[in-house]
Amino acid sequence: MSKKTSVWCLSLLSLTAFFTPLLSQQQSVFEIAGISVGNGEKRSFALEVPRGLDEGTNIPITVVHGSDTGPVLLIVAGIHGYEYPPISALHSVQRELDPDQLAGTVILVHIANLPSFLARTIHINPIDGKNLNRVFPGDPNGTQSERIAHIITSLLVDRADYLVDMHGGDGNEALRPYVYWPVSGDSAFDQETRSMALAFGIDHIVVDPVATDGSPSRYTDHTAILRGIHAITTETGQLGNNETVWIDMATDGIWNLLRHLEMVPGQATIVEEVVWLENYFVIPSPSTGIFEATVRDGYLVSEGGLIGRLLDFFGNPTGEVRAPFSGVVNYVIGTPPINQGEPIAMLSRIR
Ligand SMILES: [Zn+2]
Fold first, then answer.
1. What's the pLDDT at 26?
2. What confidence tens digit (pLDDT) does each residue in 86-121 have?
3. How close is the Cα of 3 to the center of ligand 1, in Å?
4. Of the candidates 75, 84, 77, which has an alpha carbon nearest to the alpha carbon of residue 237?
5. In percent, how much of the chain has pLDDT > 90?
6. Cα(17) to centroid of ligand 1, in Å?
7. Helix, strand or coil for residue 236?
8. Ligand 1 centre from 124 Cα, in Å?
């Protein structure tokens, strides 16, 4: 669906959280879903996801339209509603970002998956049982997750020059912070995306090839890359907690990226000592029961090394999970329940 046809089916739920005075030097306005944000303005409102096959929902966003011209940066939090540090980081950025000090436009998606956030579900949207970060670019006629993805794609991603999709260790994931660098195969394009990944400031970067065979993009960042928009995915936080250290890491990453893109004043700090990772693999659980990890996030393991043990519901050992290759444990399940086929751990090779 084109942007134009998407706009009319949305309506405004709320607006006018924040206003700053219009500059006398008024330039263009930035418009989303019929809401106009003038130069030097900051406005918070909700995009409606209309009822369809199932119930509707909404997506709280803030648009900060700078006094100066510049790129459009879209930052998304809450695709997974149990991953809190990015959500808190965007609230901080929303309060601190001054449109009079901004060149370009920043769109903050505070909580993309509000039903998941409110129901405290890991991975999935409780309304349709789908993982929002597997259904992009979405479908206006699909279930709720697919409609959320469609609105994010058509109204926001298609307006952006740069995208950051922010995640963290979900409620059951012990995760060592890292950034995905999605690689398209176009080296000049990929180098600019790489510089975004470096500007976020986390020293583990996972090289993530984007499928260009016409199959569904599935992920938010891959959707952007396939549309010619530079995009990274960041992972800060773990086990569903919302400690200051993780919020600050996410917040600092955003501000440094804003400096790197020359959207706010100041010199960006580029991380230099990076562990480059590739060939990431998510180990599926061979059975349902209890999982006890024997490694932690960020550990190095050799091929064949023990990742953890499986138990039945009586506490009896039923199996072991071992590393398929030598590498870094990006995350490992840190709570007992496990279902057959669910991720046990993500492992990457050191490049
Ligand atoms: Zn996530």
1. 35
2. 999 999 999 999 999 999 999 999 999 999 999 999
3. 27
4. 84
5. 91
6. 28
7. coil
8. 10
Ligand 1 centroid–CA 38 distance in Å is: 33
Return d(Cα 128, Cα 126) in angstroms, integer: 6
For domain 280-350, give the fold. Answer: OB fold (Dihydrolipoamide Acetyltransferase, E2P) (2.40.50)
| Cα–Cα dist 303/308, whole Å | 14
Q: What's the gap in Å between 125 CA and the centre of ligand 1?
A: 12
Average pLDDT value for the chain: 93
The whole-number average pLDDT for the span 123-130 is: 98
* Ligand 1 centroid to residue 89 C-alpha, Å: 15
Q: How far is the CA of 135 from the centre of ligand 1 (A)?
A: 13
- Token pair 């106009």 in the structure block, residue: 36
Domain residue extents for the chain: 3-260, 280-350
For the structural domain made of 3-260, what CATH number should be given? 3.40.630.10
Confidence of residue 272 (pLDDT cuts 50, 70, 90): confident
Contact partners, residue 172, CB within 8 Å, separation at least 6: 122, 239, 240, 333, 334, 335, 337
Residues paired with 334 in a beta bridge: none
SS3 state of residue 155: helix
Give 79 Cα–ligand 1 centroid separation in angstroms: 6
> How many A from CA of 342 to the centre of ligand 1?
14
pLDDT per position as a tens digit, 189-209: 999 999 999 999 999 999 999
Please report the pLDDT score of residue 328 as a whole number: 98
